[in-house]
Amino acid sequence: MKIPFNRQFIAKNTFEYTNSIINHGDLSSDGYFTKKCEEWIQKEFNCLKAFITPSCTAALEMAALILGIEEGDEIIMPSYTFVSTANAFVLRGAKPVFVDIDKEALNINTSLIENNITNKTRAIVVVHYGGYGCDMSKIKNISRKYSIPIIEDAAQCFLSQYKNQSLGTFGDIGCYSFHYTKNISCGEGGAILINNKELIEKAEIIRAKGTDQKLFKLGIKGKYEWIEKGSSFFISELTAAFLYAQFQESKSITSKRELVWNTYNNSFRTKFKDSKITLPPPGIDRTLNYHMYFLILKKEDNREEIIYSMKRSGVECTSHYQPLHNSTFGKKFERSNLSLPVTEFVASKIIRLPISPLQTKKETNYVIDRILNLVN
Ligand SMILES: *Cc1c(COP(=O)(O)O)cnc(C)c1O
After folding, report:
1. How confident is the model at residue 337, as a pLDDT?
2. pTM more than 0.90
3. Ligand 1: which of 177, 183, 192, 350 to mutate, most ligand atoms within 8 Å of CB?
4. Interval 228-257: pLDDT, tens
5. Distance between alpha carbon 250 and the CA centroid of its chain, in Å?
6. Whose CA is nearest to atom 1 of ligand 1?
7. Measured in angstroms, how far is the CA atom of residue 86 from the centroid of ligand 1?
């Protein structure tokens, strides 16, 4: 048996949509399918404005530009995240201020945020790990109290909610990913959700290379010009066509992942009941999108050996983030040797199991069997 960590799902309408683009011969950006994707997000997520971007990395970089992040600014974020969360702000000269996570959901520990706020803090960036929403009620309260905007790295969150509200719509800005490792994927792609009306116009200019091209396209101006800092944040219509087919099937993709996730969870919840192994938390107040299934092993377990043994049985399991605060580059931002104990423990003991809408019950049971053989 060979079970990859992740498999690309091809939606039914993929061929029809991409063929229509090829037949037309117009692959230029911001066309029919890009708009369809944006409208889909706006409607389904109940969000003010969405723009499709080349990646979540690009969406985060765009967020930093929209908020006018500058040299010397401080950005609060978890250390347990992907490098793009930090890079977006570091590229503008800001300093990431790394905060520890809570040991259940592996999201930023909300009780540690206020201690890290200074008069230089310009944003709180939260990451909803595995599509499990952060406690947005608490984070919104902190944001209001100090008038600091929230940016949500919702890269893994397609169709996830907190208290029946879509993730990525709580902060001023939310960023999604359609990278091939995510639930809904077009290889490389992303979206930026703008939830603050005052930021929409700025976003329109920044994504169009800092120009007022939008007014030109609408026929309001005869030509467009450079009016702001900006870059290019569009995708090809060919990619957008592929993506829109995925959006249309996103609910059934999620249900297929749910079956795999529940099979893992039902089995491990019983088997590890009296063990120190930690499983993903139950979704109280959350609608899950079943992005990831993980186990946090015990202190004495050798994770690398377990990953290697799984691999020999044909099952591809993975670890996750190297904490940013003690990475080679991340250390440069730290005052002293910052210690984030939960982040460090989780990063050394987490193991993620294969999950995809194409994974069969037989494959999932095989993974469970192999894991139970190695871990107890
Ligand atoms: C995948 C991911 C990203 C990067 O997304 P890309 O679309 O590959 O740029 C950023 N943050 C988190 C939390 C992610 O999981």
Report:
1. 81
2. yes
3. 177
4. 999 999 999 999 999 999 999 999 999 999
5. 16
6. 155
7. 11
